[in-house]
Specification:
single chain; alpha/beta; Rossmann fold; Helicase, Ruva Protein, domain 3; 2 domains; 7-stranded mixed beta sheet; two-stranded antiparallel ribbon; about 35% helix; about 15% strand; elongated; S-adenosyl-L-methionine; EC 2.1.1.182; rRNA_Ade_diMease-like_C; rRNA_Ade_Mease_Trfase_CS; RNA-binding
Length: about 300
């Protein structure tokens, strides 16, 4: 690269973004859910939400042409950018050439763990953070892989569909509260940092997005003895949202345990006709312990 490269417009600048796409003749693939962010205000919000330190290692999923990657590399020790689309590799090689702390990995993130990605960079002195503009159609599997892996990030900053983000942060009693809310909130503190209009992307998606920040608990407020059973109970209680808690539990535990289940709910101070969305995470933990003997 010429010595003039660092003085160019940021990759995220709409003028430069369009020039890069034109230079390489890049065509978006709908099957990969490709929507490139061209709003510098939103990029700033993502960077702020990541709460970056100079010693951090950031894994970026879906770097696109490097708009956010560039902003991250200016602030942290190491950026590992995971890109599934081989067509973007030559573009990234050029746009990110001025930075020596970026490693681009051509990989499907669902087929490679964080432990494998980070192995060449051990020991890692700072925090591990994940920043991603996730395709809507695989948001949930990627998110849970990141949350539940052997190597667990200190913070995740995810650009996802606004409606999904609202479900994740929802609390008991809200219409959006459900198994997804509980599955995330038992592991990490969740909050929406920014609502992002669809006009911030090219091409424009059909819906608005949100910057979701997930921060690992220093010490989890939830003590779950059997995670698999807890997940099973929670999923069952939201399986048919129109049904009350007792009916969903009967489907899980068997109709022959009706009397025992009614007694358990009474002992927990829960009416038989209460619905799953009314229960707190603590109440689901208590419920799991109480009905565990009926689950096979």
């Amino acid at each position: 690269m010429s010595s003039e490269q660092p003085q160019r417009l940021d990759i995220a600048d709409p003028i430069r973004t369009q020039a890069i796409l034109h230079q390489f003749g890049f065509k978006f693939k709908k099957s990969l859910g490709q929507n490139f962010l061209t709003n510098r205000k939103v990029l700033g919000a993502i960077v702020a939400a990541a709460d970056l330190a100079a010693t951090d290692t950031v894994i970026e999923i879906g770097p696109g042409i490097g708009s956010l990657t560039e902003q991250l590399a200016r602030r942290v020790k190491q950026v590992i950018a995971v890109e599934i689309d081989q067509r973007l590799l030559p573009i990234l090689a050029e746009t990110l050439a001025p930075y020596d702390n970026i490693q681009v990995v051509n990989q499907d993130i669902l087929k490679r763990s964080l432990a494998e990605l980070l192995a060449p960079y051990q020991p890692i002195s700072g925090q591990i953070k994940v920043v991603a503009n996730l395709p809507y159609y695989i948001t949930t599997p990627i998110m849970f892989q990141l949350i539940n892996g052997v190597v667990q990030p200190d913070r995740l900053v995810l650009m996802i569909q606004k409606e999904v983000a609202q479900r994740i942060i929802a609390h008991p009693g809200h219409k959006d509260y459900g198994a997804l809310s509980i599955g995330v909130q038992t592991k990490m503190h969740a909050e929406i940092a920014e609502i992002v209009p669809k006009t911030a992307f090219i091409p424009q998606p059909n819906v608005d997005s949100a910057v979701l920040t997930l921060t690992r608990y220093d010490e989890s407020p939830y003590q779950i003895a059997n995670q698999a059973m807890f997940d099973q109970v929670v999923q069952s209680c939201f399986q048919q949202r129109r049904k009350n808690l007792l009916n969903n539990l009967l489907h899980l535990c068997g109709k022959n345990h009706r009397d025992e289940l009614v007694s358990i709910l009474a002992d927990l101070g829960l009416a038989p006709n209460i619905r799953g969305e009314q229960l707190s995470i603590e109440q689901f933990i208590e419920l799991t312990t109480a009905v565990s003997k009926f689950i096979h």
